[in-house]
Design a protein that fits this description.
The complex is a heterodimer of chains A (about 325) and B (about 110). Chain A is an all-alpha fold and about 325 residues long. Chain A has three domains: about 5-70, no CATH class; about 75-160, no CATH class; about 170-315, no CATH class. Helices cover about 70% and strands about 0% of the residues of chain A. Chain A has twelve helices and no strands. The relative contact order of chain A is 0.08. Chain B is α+β, with helices and mostly antiparallel strands and about 110 residues long. Chain B has a single domain (about 5-110), classed as Winged helix-like DNA-binding domain superfamily/Winged helix DNA-binding domain (Arc Repressor Mutant, subunit A), CATH 1.10.10. Classes of the chains: A mainly alpha (about 325), B alpha+beta (about 110). Chains A and B meet through α2 and α4 of A and α2 and α3 of B.
């Protein structure tokens, strides 16, 4: 016998509590037959009646879950907020840190180029993020199913996050940042005429390749000027916002990427400057200096961006 | 204009608890699943079968209903009846239902003034 009712019962029973499965089976079959009989008694065709009754009872798994008083959710309201908070907290810094460490160490071993190192770092960060999300969710899904509601610690007013009354941007830090930027803006042209490094004949040697004046140096100067404007705007706003962070990242990249690329392709420093210092010419010392500079640039940029993101996180934590 | 969906959700919420009260009242006279469903429907409690059958089991596990198999008829049927414990719970639920009605009335009349 393989009627629709048989199939319906077979689909319902496996997930019903086993202790009373037999009893539930007999009762449910009886109820279904009662319902069908009632309809055929009113002149309905038995096949149609059976279909209608089973449709009314609905998805057998849902019915079984009601019998078992089982929760039809992965993570319910008891744990959802804790899960979300933990997930956000972990994702906000762990993947970035592990990714950065990975990128720096693969750049340091020198087996891959800087591009490859950054790619490897991003890949690792994504992998770590997926792992965190999966294992955390799995843990909570198991908690949801095994532990009867246990004390998570009731919420109390002391947990309210402090609303920042102090400005995140102090005048001192803004002034320092602007001063450094102005120094950088002044130094770029200055080193061309007066670097205090002289050739044997006493002529001034520029540190940065003069060829760049017709290509990248104006761009870098513009980025530095832009950064001064940005610092002032940031101070006026008084706190980190997502748009500010976006502009900050763009400015950082606009400066760090060309510089890293130029130094890695041996185009940043002027040939005379390299000639003047024997140590730079020895072995691969120039390459090492380039690599270290690029990594330091990357770390500084990532650190600064993370710092600003943390400021926002603190506010919303 | 509030959508029908919103109204339906609120009505469902309002009715949810009353199914237990209605079942406990109705089962002062023993009955089996489908017959109870029809009786409740006749008295204006339109309960879904897939809600009522598991509910009866749960009330039985909580000791508010007792059950007995009747094998005299064409097919075996499980008859439920409100237990003494169920009766005492039911009284408190009915009191509360009445209290809600009084509160709502009081509030409505208070608003008119």
């Amino acid at each position: 016998m393989n009627s629709l009712t048989d199939r319906y019962l077979a689909a319902t029973l496996p997930s019903v509590p086993s202790a009373r499965r037999e009893e539930i089976a007999v009762e449910l079959r009886g109820s279904i037959e009662d319902m069908i009989e009632d309809r055929t008694g009113n002149g309905q065709d038995p096949g149609t009646a059976e279909r209608e009754v089973l449709t009314e009872l609905g998805n057998p798994e849902r019915l079984a879950a009601r019998y078992a008083d089982r929760r039809l959710q992965l993570i319910g309201p008891t744990y959802y907020l804790v899960w979300l908070r933990l997930l956000r907290l972990l994702l906000s810094f762990v993947p970035a840190i592990v990714g950065t460490v990975d990128a720096v160490s693969s750049a340091a071993t020198g087996e891959v180029g800087v591009g490859g190192a950054i790619g490897s770092g991003i890949g690792t960060a994504i992998e770590v993020a997926v792992h965190i999300a999966f294992w955390l969710t799995l843990t909570f899904a198991i908690l949801e199913r095994t532990t009867p509601v246990q004390g998570l610690g009731d919420w109390n007013v002391d947990q309210l996050p402090r609303v920042p009354v102090d400005r995140e941007m102090s005048l001192a830090s803004t002034a320092t940042a602007v001063a450094w930027l102005l120094f950088g803006i002044a130094y770029l042209p200055l080193q061309h005429f007066q670097s205090w490094i002289e050739s044997d004949s006493g002529a001034n040697i520029p540190i940065i390749d003069p060829a760049l004046w017709s290509s990248w140096l104006p761009v870098l100067l513009a980025v530095l000027v832009g950064s001064v404007v940005f610092e002032i705007v940031k101070y006026r706003v008084g706190r980190w916002t997502w748009p500010l962070i976006g502009v900050n990242v763009a400015l950082h990249l606009a400066f760090a990427v060309p510089v890293a690329w130029l130094i890695l392709s041996d185009r940043l420093l002027s040939p005379e400057f390299v000639q003047r210092f024997e140590w730079l010419r020895e072995g691969d010392n120039l390459g090492t200096v380039a690599n270290v500079t690029a990594v330091v640039l990357a770390v500084v940029v990532i650190w600064d961006v993370l710092d600003s993101v943390r400021a926002i996180r603190r506010r919303h934590a | 204009m509030v959508s029908d969906d919103i109204l339906r959700t609120h009505l469902q919420e309002l009715r949810r608890g009353t199914v237990v009260v209605a079942s406990l009242v109705a089962l002062r006279r023993p009955d089996y699943g489908y017959a109870l469903l029809q009786r409740l429907a006749k008295h204006g409690f339109a309960v879904d079968a897939n809600t009522l059958y598991p509910l009866l089991r749960r009330l039985e596990e909580q000791g508010l209903l007792t059950s007995e198999w009747n094998t005299e008829e064409s097919r075996p049927r499980k008859f439920y009846r409100t237990s003494d414990e169920g009766e005492s719970i039911l009284r408190q639920l009915l009191d509360d239902l009445a209290a809600i009605q009084i509160s709502v009335t009081g509030l409505t009349e208070g608003m008119d003034r």
